[in-house]
Inverse folding.
C-alpha cells in the first residue's frame, strides 16, 4: 500500500534543511523542522524570513502565501515531535556516525509507515538503513543548494529500498514542484556531484599549479563553457567545509590519498574561510549569509 504523505519532517535547520522545509510548506505540507541546536533553529528561521521577504517585495510571492507557509512549519528541538510524520528528510551534518545515531533514534519515534530519507551529498542510504527496522523505507532524496531555487532532486534507490518507497519519494518530489530523477543503483556522490567533482578537481589542480587564477578559471567556465557560475564561486556558495567533509568521507571510504581534500581547501577550512556563510572564501562578501 502506498503511503499518503501529509506531514513532513525535516531534520537539521541549516543551509539545506531550512530551505527544504520552506519548499514543502509552500506546497501545502505541514512541516516539523527539528534541530538539536536552538541557535540553528532561530538562525534558520531568520534567514528564511529574509529570503521570503525578498520574494514578496519582488512580487514573486504574496505576503499571505508566505505567512500561511510559515504557519505550517513547526520549529522544534524535540525529536519526539516527529512521531506523526509520513516522510522525513534528514539534512544534518555530513558525518556518517552522527547520521547513523540519528536514524536509529528516529526509527523508534517515527510511525512504522514513514519513509526515512537522507539529503546527504555523498553517503548512500545502505550505510544508514541497517540501523533501522525498516530498511525498505530508507532512501536518498538529494536536493541541491539553494533548495528554494534548484529544481532537480536525485532519488536514489539502494538495494534495501522497496520499489514502493522509491515511487512514493518520486511522487513526493513532484508534489513539491521539483524535478526528480531516479538512480536505480547506489553510487557515492550520485550523478550531479560526481560530474561536478571532476570539474572541481581540475579547477583546483589548475589553481594549485599556478596555471591560472581562481577568478580566471571561474570566467572560463562561465564564458567558454556557458556555466552559470564558476567552480570557486560555487564552492563559496555551498561551503568550502562541505567540500572538505565530502572529500574526507570519500578518503575514509577508499583509503586513497588522492581522495583527500586539496591543499587549498584544507588551508581555507583551517583559516575558517568557508565561503559566503563566513563572509570570505575564495572571494570576499560584504554580508553573510548567502543571498538567494
Ligand atoms: N550545503 C550544500 O550545498 C548541500 C547540498 C546538498 C546536500 N547537502 C547535504 O545536506 C546535509 C546538511 O548540509 P548543510 O549544508 O545544510 O549543513 P549545515 O551545517 O548548514 O546544517 C546542519 C544542521 O544540522 C544540525 N544538526 C547536527 N547534528 C544534528 C542532529 N543529530 N540532530 C538534529 N540536527 C543536527 C546542526 O545544528 C545544523 O543546524 C548534509 O548531509 C550535506 O551533505 C548539502
Amino acid at each position: 500500500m502506498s503511503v499518503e504523505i501529509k506531514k513532513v519532517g525535516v531534520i537539521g535547520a541549516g543551509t539545506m534543511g531550512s530551505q527544504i522545509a520552506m519548499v514543502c510548506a509552500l506546497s501545502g505540507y505541514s512541516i516539523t523542522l527539528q534541530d538539536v541546536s536552538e541557535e540553528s533553529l532561530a538562525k534558520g528561521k531568520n534567514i528564511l524570513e529574509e529570503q521570503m521577504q525578498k520574494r514578496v517585495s519582488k512580487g514573486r510571492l504574496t505576503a499571505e502565501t508566505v505567512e500561511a507557509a510559515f504557519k505550517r512549519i513547526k520549529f522544534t528541538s524535540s525529536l519526539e515531535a516527529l512521531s506523526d510524520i509520513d516522510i522525513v528528510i534528514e539534512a544534518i551534518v555530513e558525518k556518517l556516525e552522527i547520521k547513523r545515531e540519528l536514524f536509529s533514534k528516529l526509527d523508534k519515534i517515527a510511525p512504522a509507515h514513514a519513509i526515512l530519507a537522507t539529503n546527504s551529498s555523498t553517503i548512500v542510504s545502505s550505510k544508514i538503513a541497517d540501523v533501522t527496522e525498516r530498511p525498505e523505507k530508507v532512501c536518498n532524496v538529494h536536493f541541491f543548494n539553494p533548495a528554494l531555487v534548484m529544481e532537480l532532486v536525485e532519488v536514489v534507490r539502494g538495494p534495501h529500498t522497496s520499489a514502493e518507497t522509491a515511487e512514493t519519494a518520486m511522487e513526493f518530489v513532484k508534489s513539491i514542484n521539483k524535478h526528480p530523477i531516479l538512480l536505480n543503483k547506489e553510487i557515492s556522490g550520485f550523478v550531479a556531484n560526481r560530474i561536478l567533482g571532476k570539474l572541481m578537481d581540475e579547477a583546483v589542480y589548475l589553481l594549485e599549479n599556478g596555471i591560472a587564477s581562481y577568478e580566471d578559471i571561474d570566467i572560463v567556465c562561465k564564458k567558454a563553457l556557458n556555466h552559470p557560475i564558476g567552480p570557486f564561486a560555487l564552492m563559496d556558495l555551498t561551503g568550502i567545509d562541505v567540500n572538505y567533509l565530502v572529500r574526507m568521507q570519500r578518503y575514509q571510504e577508499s583509503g586513497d590519498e588522492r581522495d583527500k581534500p586539496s591543499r587549498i581547501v584544507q588551508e581555507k577550512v583551517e583559516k575558517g574561510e568557508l565561503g559566503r556563510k563566513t563572509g570570505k572564501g575564495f572571494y570576499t562578501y560584504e554580508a553573510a549569509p548567502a543571498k538567494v
The beta strands are 7-11, 30-34, 73-76, 87-90, 115-118, 138-142, 152-156, 179-183.
